[in-house]
Amino acid sequence: MNNKHTSYKVAVGGVVSALCLTLMFLTGVFPLLSMAIPIYAGALMIVVAREVSTSWAFAAYCAVSLLSLFLTPDKEASTLFIMFFGYYPIILPWLDKIKFKLLRICCKLAVFNGAIIIWYKLIALIMGVYDFFGDFAFLGEYAVAAVMVFINLVFALYDYTIRMIESVYVNWFRPTYFGKKKPKPQSKKDHS
Q1: Alpha helices by DSSP H, 26-136
Q2: How confident is the model over 61-77, as pLDDT tens digits?
Q3: C-alpha span between 34 and 133 (Å, rounded)
Q4: CA-CA distance, 103 to 26, in Å (whole number)?
Q5: Which of 162, 187, 188, 189 lies closest to 47 in space, CA to CA?
């Protein structure tokens, strides 16, 4: 089967988008997982990026983002997907190509912190939740800094985990279930 056919691309994008939307819809059923489900949905974008292309993965991300705004009962989870977890697995290979480790880490942290700060401002505007750090009053004046350090440590764990998920997909799942022995090379020019 030739992977270059448009019908194949549409099918992969459609199936992954449907799975992502199903997961995002489950935030209404399992509200305790409202932070975890966008991570799972975003991890599925690896399939589209690897099997088709990054441009098709971005198209699937945009479709899921738009539909999740209307169909997902938990708007906090849908905005988390839109603001960070939906696109990060798609751009991760580009970030990992940065040769200097310190610069690569700084770029990843800049993407994450920028997205989280914008997400927080958006949630505050939409839901009127301005006192997020009130729960951390026991930390005093260091509450904001402590929370930022903690979520950056969680991000480091997420970054490592999403890279391991991609590695398992490329090196085990893909050859086992799709019969593809070699990983698809990431070309500089993305063909859509």
Answers
A1: 37-43, 45-51, 54-71, 75-80, 88-96, 101-127
A2: 999 999 999 999 988 89
A3: 19
A4: 37
A5: 162
95 and 104 Cβ atoms separated by less than 8 Å: yes
Whether this prediction's pTM lies above 0.85 is answered by no
The answer to whether position 187 is within a domain reads no
Long-range CB pairs of 97-106 (<8 Å, 24+ gap) are 97/186
- The angle at the Cα of 38, spanning 40 to 60, to the nearest 5 degrees, equals 85
DSSP-assigned letters across all residues of 159-189: HHHHHHHHHHIIIIIHHHHH---SPPP--SS
Distance CA 146, CA 61 (A): 32
Q: Is residue 190 part of a domain?
A: no
**155 inside domain:** yes
pLDDT tens-digit readout, 73-94: 988 899 999 999 999 999 999 9
CB under 8 Å to 107, separation ≥6 — which residues?
Answer: 95, 98
Is residue 17 within 8 A of residue 60, CB to CB? The reply is yes
If one counts the domains in the chain, the total is: 1
Q: Is residue 183 part of a domain?
A: no
- As to burial, measured by CB atoms within 10 angstroms (0-12 exposed, 13-18 middle, 19+ buried), residue 38 is buried
